[in-house]
Write a structure and sequence with these properties.
Radius of gyration: 49 Å
Helix content: 40-55%
CATH architecture of the largest domain: 3-Layer(aba) Sandwich
CATH class of the largest domain: Alpha Beta
CATH topology of the largest domain: Rossmann fold
Strand content: 5-15%
Number of helices: 13
Shape: rod-shaped
Length: 430
């Protein structure tokens, strides 16, 4: 295009090297990736974890039967709490108290019963909270329950698995009550108490109709405490009367000063074995893994354009006659002087023909053109020199002749020269 600078052969391309991303896009991608990766690492360092959805009687549940508020109460009171989802007894032994709150055993599946028995034999100090209610269905919100009903059979299963010689007693009634061994005023619905049957139980907190918190002797040492009624630690009952005070007193009976409380959640179905690969795909570690994968993809993509060692940078200006001729032709074409070069090319062709055909020295150029015309007719050349000169003059006078017309005219001049030197070229096909 006239007026634009040509590309220099052997130099740097006008748009730079072949890059997978333009500079603004690459800077934006790098900034977004760095910010999101920093956020993901901050979440990992801060210990943020994905919530466990539950509506049962466990430490993750915020329903009426859950123990989430009880865990918050312990931590607010300065009691170290660990919610365990793997090897709870091993984690509690020997410097912590293992708390098994309302374990859910099955009459048809003995796996959890054997697991409970193994935890009781492996742990040192154990606090068992017997189950009392069974929730049915879910409300309109996730983590809610619609209704509850008494489930004395669940508590009886736990007593048998723990080898506690006692039975469940429900005297009925409700309202505030004072029990021995605690200064708290209790408020509950349908109290659930223990009555010893075949083994001695030392009452730590006893009420008029039975034992609320009792301690069982253990042949292998250690301590086993049983809290018969879970309403004191459940979300629905923790805020009633002095139940929160009672919950803290129960934990104080089970632990020594400075001991942590390990709350088992494997018997609620929340077991998760520790695995590096599994943890990498759980929030918030998952965010860092995704960012690392995107960064690897970007680096791989960027490397596809240049595999191996980088190519040496071409010199800014090539050398040799060919480069000089190409640059000169590009400058003439950009300046709009292509038609002028046709005239010079035609004059050079006439001079070559004159030297080759031993043309005499003419005083005037008109005489030279006449001699060339006569020579062309004798040799049978199809193109006349005068016709070529007229076509060149028309192209030189045109405002902006097309490149195709200039190339066609140059080819005609070349064929005229060849025919003047070697004779007309005959088509071999006849």
């Amino acid at each position: 295009m006239p007026g634009s600078l040509p590309a220099i052969p052997g130099g740097v391309p006008p748009h730079g090297v072949d890059e997978p991303f333009r500079r603004p896009v690459a800077i934006g991608l790098a900034a977004v990736t760095a910010c999101s990766l920093t956020l993901a690492v901050a979440l990992v360092v801060s210990g943020a974890q994905s919530p466990v959805e539950s509506a049962g009687a466990d430490a993750f549940s915020r329903s009426a039967l859950g123990h989430h508020a009880f865990v918050d109460l312990l931590r607010a009171s300065g009691v170290p709490v660990v919610i365990s989802r793997f090897a709870s007894a091993e984690r509690a032994r020997p410097r912590a108290v293992l708390m098994i709150a309302e374990p859910r055993l099955s009459a048809t599946d003995a796996t959890r019963q054997r697991r409970l028995e193994g935890m009781l034999s492996a742990a040192g100090s154990v606090l068992i909270v017997l189950p009392k209610w069974s929730g049915t269905g879910r409300g309109p919100h996730t983590g809610w329950i619609e209704s509850v009903q008494p489930a004395p059979q669940l508590a009886a299963q736990v007593l048998r698995a723990a080898a506690v010689g006692a039975r469940i007693h429900r005297p009925g009634g409700r309202g505030p009550e004072h029990c021995d061994g605690t200064a708290a005023t209790l408020s509950w619905t349908d109290p659930q108490l223990l009555v010893p049957v075949s083994s001695p139980i030392r009452p730590l907190i006893s009420c008029a109709d039975g034992i609320l918190l009792g301690e069982m002797p253990r042949a292998k040492g250690g301590r086993l405490l049983v809290l018969s009624d879970p309403d004191a630690i459940a979300n629905h009952g923790l805020g009633q009367a002095s139940n929160a005070r009672l919950a803290l007193e129960v934990v104080a009976h089970a632990r020594q000063p400075g001991q942590a409380v390990v709350i088992d959640e494997t018997l609620h179905g929340h077991e998760r074995a520790p695995s590096l690969w599994a943890e990498l795909f759980v929030f918030p570690q998952l965010a860092a893994v995704i960012q690392g994968g995107l960064a690897l993809f970007a680096f791989t993509w960027a490397g596809l354009a240049r595999f191996g060692a980088p190519l040496p940078v071409a010199p800014p200006m090539g050398s040799g006659k060919g480069v000089l001729i190409e640059n000169t032709a590009s400058l003439l074409r950009s300046g709009g002087h292509s038609a002028y070069t046709l005239g010079r090319y035609l004059e050079a062709a006439i001079a070559d023909v004159g030297r080759a055909q031993h043309a005499p020295a003419f005083a005037r150029s008109v005489d030279q053109r006449t001699w060339m015309e006569n020579l062309g007719r004798r040799r049978g050349v199809a193109r006349s020199l005068s016709a070529l000169e007229r076509r060149v003059d028309r192209l030189r006078q045109a405002d902006s002749p097309s490149g195709a017309a200039i190339v066609s005219m140059a080819a005609s001049i070349h064929r005229w020269k060849e025919e003047m030197l070697r004779g007309p070229q005959r088509d071999p096909r006849g």
